[in-house]
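Let's practice the habit of predicting before peeking. Look at the sequence and jot down your guess about where helices and strands might fall. Then scroll down.
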Amino acid sequence: MENNLINLTQKLISISSWVDEKTNESEIGEFIFQYLIKNSNLQVKKQVVINNRFNIIAQNSNNIETLVIGHIDTVQPSKSWTKNPISPEIINDQLYGLGSTDMKSGIAVMLKTAISKNLKPNTGFLFYIDEEYDFLGANYFINEYKNKIKPKKIISLDGLDLGIGNGCRGLIEITATINGKSGQAAVPKCGRNAITNSLIILKKLSDWLSKFKDPSFGSTSINVAYINGGQYQGKDEKGLILGKQGNIIADICQFVIDIRPSTNNINSQKIINFINRESKKLGVNLSDYFVRYDYKSWLTPKKEIKINNLSKFNQIDKTGYIDVQLLWQAFNKIPCFTIGAGSINQAHKPDEFVDIKKLLKLDEIINKLLIQY
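Done guessing? Here is the structure:
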């Protein structure tokens, strides 16, 4: 069975499942669907999300008590790879390939567990799309199933270093546009520079957000992911058209901010209100904004997670957002946790790999949780 698990992980890695104009999760989804149909007695269903992209739901009962989840997409391979990202290879007990850590090793364990003849009753599996992009798969599943099933716990194999993840900070992403007033650069007071004033606003926002702290998650953080400005000359399908002359005061600035709230006292509307207030104080104007994400934090108390000391708990104040939060919130904050064989140092990195010994240990842990002997 050891070789079966490694071979299965290699097969999954060899199927491209990032999302761009030419590629998506449909091929790997079809492989997973057919694998479950041929090798298990589970009820297996495709849930079409958008175009030809679909989730796969497999269950041995209509009364799902334990829901095991994992995403089937990966990030796009960067040009920094020195190996072929979809030609898996084993070097020194490490399995290299795109998604080996995040999270095709976890998907392989899910599949191996799902086809077991000794799977515990009332177990369901969700293989879902688009986790690395816009969370389409998780949200679509929630919309259809939040009133259909009542799981008692959710296990995600999108975890790290064989440790238990029991929470994450939230995720807020906002694109904002600040309008100033153009003028002659030699006389700064004759205008309102949208770029320099945006930088002032962002500094004040960062200082304000740092006051929101939580014992489990630490401080709220902010990342300025994109900023662009200049003299406004219109828009096209790619965005702003800006003049770049050095002798004209910039009258527009657009920025994208990524905020990881550690408390649920922070939301997108409060941040927009803050930016709007500070803009007015400086004589500029928040003319437009778009909220891409506005997700809260998730925390399952450790005492609610029954795993019989099979693994340690990970530190959660430095983790990224995990869409387990969406299901946790939708299913009445039942106990949820993550566990996986990958490493945070490998996720989304060129020449990504997973340690084979950790992968085999993950399989052992999941067997003890989901297989009856």
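How did you do? The chain has two domains: 2-168+297-370, 171-295.
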